[in-house]
Amino acid sequence: MRRTGWILALAAGYVDGLALLYLGGIFASVVTGNLVLIGVAATTDPHHITDITGPTTHAALAVAVYTTTVTLARRMPPARCLVAALAAMCTLCGGWAFAHHDPHGLAQLPLLALATLATGLQAAAQRDADTTHLTGTLSRVAKGRARLATDGPPLIAMPIGAASAALLLDTAPWLGALPAVALIAAACVLHAAAPRPPHPPAPAPQRQAAYTP
């Protein structure tokens, strides 16, 4: 999955940018950031805890959907996880169009759930590297435990994806999650085309020595 890691990081960055700008100021994939938002919102404005359209509800929904998705999908084959993420992102595109490209209030919640579902499935597909949470990757590179040439591209791709969301959605809000759909579809194709390791040859059956009394 390393060959598709930077593509999925672009998609995750784009979806996070979309969620931050249009779905309540919540991350779609960064659980740590959402946990911080829950704590800050609950402390500075406690009435948000019971406000279904407030940031606490949005952040709690994102954390719950992401955690549940990764837990349930961790045993799924990576290819199936990517296809499911693509389906979730296509559904998000439909909901985005239904909300006239500018969801507000309760309309944000199902779209946020779909965005978080898609990024959770992306994370579940990553068996060798998680491209939706890069703090660990950055720490390993800084400690010399990972190589920047191989593990660094997602660190660059994710902010580029977020910047693309800000630029594209400001000028063409009808795009919604379509760029992320294209990126995940490309990852599906690359993963399907990746060479598979050859199966080791089956051991030859051992012949029993003839019985001699």
Describe the model:
It contains nine helices and no strands. It has 213 residues and is mainly α. The chain has a single domain, classed as Growth Hormone, Chain: A, CATH 1.20.1250. α1 packs antiparallel against α5, α1 (2-22) packs antiparallel against α9 and α4 runs antiparallel to α5 (108-125). It is globular and about 50 Å long. The protein starts with a helix and ends in a 20-residue tail after the last helix. 43% of the residues are buried. The model has no long low-confidence stretch (mean pLDDT 83).
Question: How would you describe this structure in keywords?
Answer:
0% strand; 213 residues; mainly alpha; single chain; Growth Hormone, Chain: A; 9 helices; globular
Helix content: 55-70%
By secondary-structure content and strand pairing, the structural class works out as mainly alpha
Radius of gyration: 21 Å
| Distance between the amino and carboxyl termini | 59 Å
Number of domains: 1
Tertiary shape:
globular
How many strands, what sense, and barrel or not for the largest sheet?
A: none
Oligomer class = single chain
CATH architecture tag? Up-down Bundle
Please report the number of helical segments. 9
The name CATH uses for the topology is Growth Hormone, Chain: A
